[in-house]
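seq as requested:
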Amino acid sequence: RNLYLYDHKTYNRCGSCETNRINSLVSFRGKIWGACNDSTICVFNSKTGEREHLLEGHTGKVCSLAICHDNIWSGSFDKIILIWDPNTCTCLQELIDKGHNDTITYIEQVTNSYVWTSSRDNKLLVWNTKNKNDPSPIKKRTKKSISNKSSLSSQLL
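struct tokens:
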């Protein structure tokens, strides 16, 4: 299958690449990052639409991407979070066995010091990212531990 990119003003096709379905997109520093079903991440030039990099590192479908502290975080069916350098398109760090034990479904930088991740294991993790070289989960909440009466953010932070 091919993925086709179109100019949003002219609707003319400006690029394409052979890939599986894209599950998530982020735009950062003139590049479009796409999380793919085939366990890769495609990095496109946002002006030309051409694929510049095909990143490998996950062993399962990549479900989520997020910009966190000038890096790109990716989450996958393989239960791993990878942290990518957007300048070199290399993997800086793997967050393995640090909290989630199922598919990583969502990643979001909430503040300068915290990144939240969710998973099919019904956990929401809050990662302390003050030490960028060693992010670690500081809080875990499951569906059962979150009260209906109080807000999620007040319980986690």
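DSSP finds one helix and 14 strands in the chain.
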